[in-house]
Amino acid sequence: MSYLFTSESVSEGHPDKVADAISDAVLDLMMREQNPAYRCACETLVTTNQVVIAGEYKGIYNHLEVENAVRRVVRDIGYEQDGFHWETADIKNLMHGQSADIALGTDTFGAGDQGLMFGYAIDETSDLMPSAIYYSHKIVERLTAVRKSGVAWLGPDAKSQVTMEYNDDGTVSRIAKIVCSTQHSADIDINDLREQVKTIIDTVLPPTLIDADTEYLINPTGRFVIGGPDGDTGLTGRKIIVDTYGGYSPHGGGAFSGKDPTKVDRSAAYMARYLAKNIVASRGAHKATVQISYAIGVKEPTSLFVKTDKGIEFDNTITQWIRENVDLTPAGIINRFELFRPIYSETTNYGHFGKANLPWETVGLFKD
Question: Starting at the edge strand that comes first in sequence, how are the strands of the sheet with 154-166 ordered?
């Protein structure tokens, strides 16, 4: 029996993604020195012409540089609106030095916190990502590119949602529904907007997955002029399912943006994806789920779990191989992917996984 599965994505102008982008920009400032003694955990709130950043750091922290980075992020996204403008927004910088108690764990490169992290891969797309989240990302990424090419009626804030239909054997059949809401200028006719947005969407979706019964819901409420942080408050870390696998995989609950790589919420999730992707890429699994868990201040993980569609014997063999050949300590993960670098703004939008330029997306771990 066939079934439906849905995932969503958001554009870089979505309020929560504005907050994520600011947090990652502050982190990249801290990572600029590539100093393994530096630390950062930056949380951001954005609302009508207000940006508040708070959290902790260790290392050289220049308040003026941080304010300039915040304004640059907002400008590059494209916010020059009365209710949220890169030049006039009030910025409150409440960052403070890292707690000495937390430093007891991270300074020795034990895990920065307890927690569980998941990685996932499936052979549905070229990036070994699930279909619904893959195409949801493509839609809002394309909308942003079109807007930045000079299409003035498009606003920065947008959301997409794709519903895939699967055959009873779990293979992709078609796209059943597409939902897209985009901020727009006040003077565009809603019917014209819907027609133009549909044309943009169709440029990134495979025609083989679209049929006469595919339903498009574009700006279903109609008017969407007031958007972004002026329309809704944004917070760092509220789009964790958008950032990962669109609900296809379990999630440990930890957010990524603004956190330096000693925080295993982030770095171990990257390692889990790396392991899952390599299992699918070179070991013949259709899909793979990897879980890693940690205790604060402890270097070695408290557990490792691998689940594929190839059976328990295969899973146990792979698990044992990983334990013997891959360093899963925070320091080992950091060293493998060279994570004390200013690479984090590249991860903020359209998912942390499935981007070929990121080090945890490489394959070749299992050598025959």
Answer: 3-10, 154-166, 172-184, 215-218
Average pLDDT over residues 166-171: 95
Which pLDDT band, with edges at 50, 70 and 90, does 101 fall under? low
Nearest CA to 143 out of 128, 134, 153, 133 is that of 153
Residue 269 near residue 256, CB atoms below 8 Å: yes
Instruction: Say how far apart CA 336 and CA 147 lie, in whole Å.
Output: 37
**Cα first-last separation, the chain:** 38
Phi, psi at 148, each rounded to 5°: -75, -15
User: What does DSSP assign to residue 168?
Assistant: T
Residue of 77, 138, 128 lying closest to 353 (CA atoms): 128
pTM passes above 0.90:
yes
Question: Is beta strand 303-308 parallel, antiparallel or unpaired with respect to 287-294?
Answer: antiparallel
Q: Read off the DSSP letter of residue 283.
A: H
98 DSSP assignment: P
Please give the average per-residue pLDDT across 271-299, as a whole number. Answer: 95
* pLDDT value of residue 103: 59
Spatial CA neighbour of 5 closest among 117, 134, 120, 118: 134
Whole-angstrom distance, CA of residue 70 vs CA of residue 163: 35
Query: Alpha-carbon distance 185 to 283, whole Å?
Result: 50
* pLDDT tens sequence across 306-344: 999 999 999 999 999 999 999 999 999 999 999 999 999
- d(Cα 310, Cα 195) in Å, to the nearest integer? 45
In tens, the pLDDT along 197-240 reads 999 999 999 999 999 999 999 999 999 999 999 999 999 999 99
- Cα(351)–Cα(361) distance, integer angstroms: 12
Q: Give CA angle at 136 (131, 139), nearest 5°.
A: 125
H or E stretch including 294? strand 287-294
- CB of 94 within 8 A of CB of 44? no
C-alpha to C-alpha distance for 27 and 40, rounded to whole angstroms: 6
